[in-house]
Amino acid sequence: MKKIICLAAASMLAVTAFVSCGKDKDKSSGSGFEGKWAASEMTVEGQTMTSFNLMIVDVPLDAMFHIDVDGDGTFTVETGLVGMPSDAEETSAKGKWEKVGDDTYKISADSDTDLIDAGEEIEIKIDGDTFTIESEEDGEKGSITFKRVTEFATYDVSSALGGLADAFGGLSE
Predict the structure, then answer these.
(1) What tens digit of pLDDT does each residue of 121-147 get?
(2) For FRET with 147, which of 12, 63, 90, 169 sits at 20 to 30 Å CA-CA?
(3) What pTM value is reported for the model?
(4) What is the widest separation between alpha-carbon atoms in the chain?
(5) What fold is seen in the domain 2-172?
């Protein structure tokens, strides 16, 4: 399970490890990449999922991983998880993107993260309203598919954990 959590975190941070300097024409005239993107599906070791078990609660992927792509060639990766323990790792990063072909973009992070160094570039190809980022770590392959959304979903981890504690407390009486 720890490998899956690490792969999920690595995949999220992989999104943050991309560089660019897009053409002014692309930045001013709009792009198929601009907008809001949320994770919709994750595949780890051949297993596909739409939610992720985090601290004994199932969190929908669309609340875990968000990418907000601006028309100025920048993007922000964040999570929609709220109420995380205070010792949770940083879950936000900024980066740059550029268009490199028809529906193909290159992204990279502006600074190092715990799992991925700045300057590592990832090329993505948009297919309609989705794109997939693939990764491999220690011989294990994984991918996260993102879909275009109009609003980002959130998930209150503390409320979910509190509800479970209440439920278990009620069962023990």
Answers:
(1) 888 999 999 999 888 878 888 888 999
(2) 90
(3) 0.70
(4) 66
(5) Lipocalin (2.40.128)
pLDDT at 12 over 80: no
Q: Give how far the C-alpha of residue 156 lies from the chain's centroid of Cα atoms, to the nearest Å.
A: 17
CA distance linking residue 170 with residue 173, whole number of Å: 6
The share of the chain scoring above pLDDT 70, in percent, equals 65
Residue 8 three-state SS: helix
- Gap between the Cα atoms of 106 and 122, Å rounded: 6
Sequence-distant (6+) residues with CB within 8 A of 139 are none
Contact 133, 60 (CB under 8 A): no
Are 60 and 165 in contact by the 8 Å Cβ rule? The answer is no
Q: Catalogue the E-assigned strands of the chain.
A: 35-44, 47-49, 51-54, 57-60, 66-69, 74-78, 81-82, 93-101, 104-109, 122-125, 130-137, 140-149, 155-156
